[in-house]
Amino acid sequence: MPNAPDDAIEKVIKLRAEINEHNYRYYILDDPTISDAEYDRLLRQLQAIEAQYPELITADSPTQRVGNLPSKAFKEVKHDVPMLSLDNAFSEAEVVAFEQRIKDRLHTEAAIEFACEPKMDGVAISLLYENGFLIRGATRGDGYTGEDITSNVRTIRTVPLQLRGKDIPKRLEVRGEIYMPKAKFNQLNEQLKERNEKVFVNPRNAAAGSLRQLDPRITAKRPLEIVCYGVGSRENLTHIKTHSGIVQQLKQWGLRISMEVQVVPSVVECLQYYYSMMNKRPHLPYEIDGIVYKVNNIELQERLGFVARAPRWAIAHKFPAQEEMTIVEAIEFQVGRTGILTPVARLKPVFVGGVTVSNATLHNMDEVQRKDVHVGDTVVIRRAGDVIPEIVAVVLTKRPPHTKIIELPKHCPVCGSEVLKPEGEAAARCEGGLVCAAQRKEAIKHFASRKAMDINGLGDKLVEQLVEVGLVHDVADLYRLTQAQLANLDRMAEKSASNLIAAIGQSKTTTLARFIYSLGIREVGEATALNLAQHFRDLRLLMQENAENLQKVQDVGPIVAAHVAAFFRQQHNSDIINKLIHFGVHWPAVKINQAKQVFAGKTFVLTGSLTTMTRDEATAALQKVGAKVSGSVSKKTAYVVAGVEPGSKLTQAEKLGVTILDEKQFLKLLQEK
Ligand code: JCF
Questions:
Q1: What residues are annotated to the active site?
Q2: In this prediction, what percent of the chain has a pLDDT beyond 90?
Q3: Torsion of CA 192, 194, 197, 203, to 10 degrees
Q4: Degrees (nearest 5) of the Cα angle 193, 72, 80?
Q5: 375 strand-pairing partners
Q6: Which pLDDT belongs to residue 41?
Q7: Superfamily of domain 6-65
Q8: Cβ–Cβ < 8 Å for 211, 224
Q9: Distance 108 CA to ligand 1 centre (A)
Q10: 229 lines ligand 1 (CB under 6 A)
Q11: Alpha carbon nearest to ligand 1 atom 11, residue
């Protein structure tokens, strides 16, 4: 006899009924009437009373879903009625043939009514209810013997621990599919990734892995759901004449069923349903891998019976698989427009998502390492909808003994130049610049562009054609082109050919800054090119400088300096520069900027706001004439420019005796430069 007081017993009964009602409204009707927080409060109240009077705890209490203690292993379960699988159809013709076989066996030409439903991509499950109470949950296993995973199944909130409604059979075995919604799957993987744990390949594996946990408390934390689609024995349900009727009855008893079940008059509508679900598929919150068609009439089902392991009265019309396994035969590195090396897996061709896939990008080396892909590995390839195929995961159990670890090449596979991967950056780049075939077209376009060598009439399309026909290999070849060669090209008339030759000739006279810019060194824009030209004034001096000294140039930091030094370190880059000069590219001696002489090395500090320009504009104007702009005043500060409402920098300047300029004096100084 429980020694709990009557009011506690009453309260527990009331809370359980209330919570079960909300569970039903939330999970089955999809129509909750209280907030999640209120629901949690009810559950906590119940937990508190049960904690105080443990003798009140029952197996079907809603609190028991949180999971029992771990069990050692799963017991075997013999299914009363074998859990059959379904025959598959992979084409319309196979579906039509399925219907014809049915008609033949039934000796009828009348249309067959079918129940259609999505085929959930999860784990098949059997739920056994006795007197309305869930007494066992089991996996399908081999169809005859499964595993007893009752403790785990109990943690799933959409699995009723007790049936509701009228006329509940003494014994009822319900069949369904346990799955993990797509969004929940992604969240779970994010969490696992954060904790450095192994992620799941897809929602089905996540559902299976979660159900296989020996500790139900882990299962309880996994976002699993169920959809029920049938029963084992129909013994107690003989009054129900259709499959759809059975499914509706399951719903009445509080079990969750698919919202997409639809009864159709013939196979034609089955196919319509198939295509409409195929379109819906990417938007469904769960994964499906096809459509199940079932003869709706149970008497007909019984006349049709079974073959081997599958009913004659049902078929799974599969969607093209979105995931397949294949082997990584090689990894190649593609060199993109800006020299970025992208690892691409060459795969044993595999049909997935409706197309044959033989390549999959791995994006960058970080991804290769994260996914731990080796050459020779078996991998899961995914192509969903029209997205680019991707490698989902390596099947480690299939890794052969001598796989090759993928390493970033030290030299560009296209041109042999150095490959650099800055610390902390995902991208690795070929430093080949002008010579690298993959980068050549872009480099030539850049070289010819308006702010670079400004070759009028040499557009992108023409550059591509010149490279493709082999007339231009590098930018120096532009200066070898003849009018006859150009006139032979597609869409090129005599006149435009001679105009282009003239424009190429004119481009030979340029400036050092333009020339440096036109080389297309990474991170070297117009402004940096100008600074480099002003600083060195002699191309040879620039070419010999090391990265450390390059940082002495105005606005050149360690990254830019490294790119500049790496560029000139490549022999072929200096070869091309020599050729360009040989073909007559030249520039006047760089004029010493007088303004620079006046302000070079002088530090300005700005305080308060100016009325005629913004702080950024003032800074730019000062930098243009060689001055440095600093944020704090020291003895080394040359001038402090004090605008409206100056701050403490003005006081500091007065204290240190630094020259102070007001806006008018400042503007005058700038104009005098
Ligand atoms: O959704 C499913 N995976 C699913 C599997 C749906 C069904 O109606 C099934 C099934 C497996 C067997 N029906 C049977 C008879």
A1: 119
A2: 59
A3: 20
A4: 105
A5: 404
A6: 80
A7: Helix hairpin bin (1.10.287.610)
A8: yes
A9: 26
A10: yes
A11: 85
